[in-house]
Amino acid sequence: MTAPYSMDLRERALARKDAGETNREIAAALRISASCVSKWTKRKRETGSLAPAQIGGYKPRTLCGDCADWLRARIAAGPFTLRGLAAELTERGIKTHPRAVWVFVHAEGLSFKKNRAARGAGAP
């Protein structure tokens, strides 16, 4: 993904706009698209700022709060699998993916490692 244009370029473009040049003239002189000039003009008019908007987003984790407390207690209660935890969460009305459960378990530093002693007497 490319970086946004600099504030200096944005300010120079709008200074030319205030001086009476058209969007296409400004675009040709500064080697940018005419739509950039019109979008910057609109942004300045609506927000009062030329600063670029945030690129990308932030999605809060679904496994937080009461759900996270329940997960911690469930993990401490005994053996689990990520798919099993995801299924239990679905039964509780929380739609999630095993990958999200893994991210939570990993971030919390919680894990359950299977070992030979836990398998039983007949297992190799």
How is this fold's topology laid out?
Layout: H1 7-18, H2 23-30, H3 34-47, H4 66-77, H5 82-91, H6 98-108, H7 116-119
Explained architecture:
The radius of gyration is 27 Å and the shape is rod-shaped. About 55% of the residues lie in helices and about 0% in strands. With about 120 residues, the protein is mostly helical.
- The radius of gyration computed from the alpha-carbon positions, rounded to a whole number of angstroms, is 27 Å
> What is the total number of structural domains?
2
Structural class: mainly alpha
Give the strand content: under 5%
Number of helical elements: 7
* Unreliable stretches: none
Q: Could you spell the SSE succession in H and E letters?
A: HHHHHHH
Shape assignment: rod-shaped
Q: Approximately how much helix is present in the residues?
A: 55-70%
Number of strands: 0
Averaged pLDDT: 86
Largest sheet: none
N-to-C span: 51 Å
What does this entry show, briefly?
By secondary structure, the protein is mainly alpha-helical.
